[in-house]
Write a structure and sequence with these properties.
The protein has 176 residues and is mostly beta strands. It contains two helices and eleven strands, in the order ααβββββββββββ. The chain has an eight-stranded antiparallel β-barrel with strand order 1-2-3-4-5-6-7-8. The protein has a three-stranded antiparallel β-sheet with strand order 10-9-11, with no helix packed on it.
Length: 176
């Protein structure tokens, strides 16, 4: 009997397609496009992961998020998704010769995300814990990546304008 019902349903679907008619499914709930289900998380975010503070400029298209980020020691890239009140972010950064990977997953509540993170790097260092992220601005135009500053053959990373450290004739800057 079950086989007969399955065959009958398949025949109805195939006959509707073969006649060039659209198949209509009746649904009594509401349908919301995926783009409208994602909360807007665009902007500048400050993220605290144990003893690391990350500043991120996040852009959003639908559910997909991309952006740039920095800590005191490195600059990196962000990729992730937003679905309902859940936000997932992957960070890739290079600190010297060490590749850093951070995965964060948290719950969005207004301008704050609370969640868990996992950090790994190519030198074998691993860590995990809780994080909190706060949106500090909805405008990403003021974001600047960390810059490398070389003074007397010693490299430093700074945020903001490098010219305030020493006179421009005493140093050279290179993009991060």
């Amino acid at each position: 009997m079950r086989f007969l019902i399955i065959v009958l349903v398949m025949c109805v679907i195939l006959s509707a397609q073969s006649l060039g008619r659209d198949t209509t499914i009746v649904y009594s709930g509401s349908v919301v496009p995926l783009d409208q289900q994602a909360a807007d998380v665009s902007g500048i975010w400050s993220m605290s992961l144990n003893d690391t503070v990350i500043t991120a400029a996040i852009n959003q298209t639908g559910r997909e998020i991309t952006g740039r980020c920095r800590s005191d020691a490195w600059s990196g890239l962000i990729s992730g998704t937003v679905s309902g009140d859940q936000m997932s972010i992957a960070v890739a950064a290079l600190q010297g010769d060490v590749l850093i990977s951070i995965y964060m997953n948290g719950k969005l509540a207004g301008e704050v995300v609370n969640g868990e993170f996992i950090r790994m790097d190519s030198s074998g260092l691993r860590g995990s814990g809780s994080f909190i992220a706060r949106r500090v601005s909805s405008d990403t135009s003021g974001y600047t990546s960390a810059k490398r500053v070389v003074i007397n053959r010693t490299e430093y990373r700074v945020s903001g304008p490098a010219s305030g450290i020493l006179g421009m004739n005493e140093m050279s800057t290179a993009p991060a």
